[in-house]
Amino acid sequence: MVFRTSHVGPASGAARRASAVAAALLLGTIMLAGCTYDFDGAFAAAHAQVDASAGPDGASSDAAHDADSSPSVDSSWPGDTGAADGAPADGCVPACQGKCAGTDDGCGHACPSSDCAVNQQCDPSGHCCTASTCGQLGLTCGSADDGCGHALDCGSCASAAYCLGTGCMTLSFHMATLPGGSFTMGSPSSEPGRDTYDGPNHELDETAHTVTLTHPFAMADTEVTQADFQTVMGYNPSNFSACGGNCPVENVTWDEAAEFCNRLSKGRGLQTCYSCSGTLPGVTCTLEPGLATPYDCAGFRLPTEAEWEYAARGGTQTAFSSGPLQQLSCTPVDPSLDQIGWYLGNSSASYSGTVSVPCGSTYVNVGTHPVGSRGANNFGLFDMAGNVWEWVFDCAASYGSGTKVDPVGPMSCDHNSRIFRGGGLGNTSELCRHAERAANATPTGRNIDIGLRPARTLP
């Protein structure tokens, strides 16, 4: 390492003349061991040499020096050193080892040539750097920094895969394409099981109203599995982990679900829909600045409430896509719901970690079940009723009346006001209706029966 010391410039002409006068007054000659030393003569000669380039007021008259007063790098190094031994006059020692040509040598001058090896290149700061290849970084897809400040393109994945971590990964769900269209959102007041509780401010009402979605969109055909979540996020928060990797992930917060969607977007080279901060699992996410609504994002995201219900109904208007609700209690099993979903009436399980839930005069040990193991609706979507509830984008708000076009609730709220839809493994049939709305998760924002299903806007 080269240390630089502060440089003190030559004394002014007036100061040098004052010094000479003082010396002359103090001593004209010095007697040393019987020898006479002409102090005045020696000092005058030295003074004349120092001032050879000075004007009458002691200032430098060197035009080149005046012109080169800019602090920019001087490309003339090491020519005009001003010292007999070739070192810079200010005492600074230049250092160009490991630097590229034109880089500052540490003394305000440009290095005259590159010191890089044949296999090296210059980084943005002008230092020699050995770049890494995609193979050396263990990458088979995506982009990365080569270690020298330059971007590497490591390739892309097949259309059904995502670039996750160091390579291309496939996930268990497939994105089904849904056309835009109009439908009646909510439920008629006569629908059996219609929830009489609509929140303290009617923010969970089911007022029937016409909704038009002007865009086609894609939605995962199943709920995200534990194996998918582990692959994308690197951990599995599920309470029912003993159910297995093909069972829906649950016990996730809205923010974790948003971060999951962001990672899918990055894995496909798409725009991210959320701005997330913090470290997992305590990440916090909001809609990306610059996006007016989630519909404006091209990447993966949570569906809006309107998209979710449109997708769940699959062109039908009954309580379930498979038919009307017929049994309000947990027994006997509702024949319509039994076709398409896991709920309290049919979700008993014997693996470890199940939860005991009251059903009439008895208790049932319930748990999640593998995704896609009940029937699909007309859009080819599974588990849109039961198994686990699913986070949507919206914050709780009253529907109101009248026709709505691409509706969405408030853009931000705390996790207790985020909506989840679809019903879960421990719920009775009426809570699994497609019109059912729920909010107010636990204080931590986690429930052992809430998962997710990603969606994205299509061109």
Account of the protein in words:
The protein is of the alpha+beta class and 459 residues long. Among the domains are: 36 residues, no CATH class; 285 residues, paralog of FGE (formylglycine-generating enzyme) (Alpha-Beta Complex), CATH 3.90.1580.10. The chain is built from seven helices and 22 strands. A four-stranded mixed β-sheet has the order 20-19-17-21. A three-stranded antiparallel β-sheet has the order 9-12-22, with no helix packed on it. Helix 1 runs antiparallel to helix 2. The longest helix is centred in the N-terminal third of the chain and has 14 residues. The N terminus is likely disordered.
Features:
alpha+beta, paralog of FGE (formylglycine-generating enzyme), four-stranded mixed sheet, 7 helices, 22 strands, disordered N terminus
Order of helices and strands: HEEHHEEEEEEEEEEHHEEHHEEEEEEEE
Provide the helix percentage.
10-25%
CATH topology of the domain at 173-457: paralog of FGE (formylglycine-generating enzyme)
- Physical arrangement of strands within the biggest beta sheet: 20-19-17-21
In CATH, the homologous superfamily of the domain at 173-457 goes by the name paralog of FGE (formylglycine-generating enzyme)
Compile the SSE list and pairings.
Elements: H1 13-26, E1 29-32, E2 35-38, H2 39-50, H3 63-67, E3 121-122, E4 128-129, E5 143-145, E6 151-153, E7 161-164, E8 167-170, E9 175-178, E10 181-185, E11 209-213, E12 217-220, H4 226-233, H5 254-267, E13 274-277, E14 284-287, H6 305-313, H7 335-340, E15 355-359, E16 362-366, E17 389-395, E18 404-405, E19 418-421, E20 437-438, E21 450-451, E22 455-457
Helix pairs in contact: 1-2
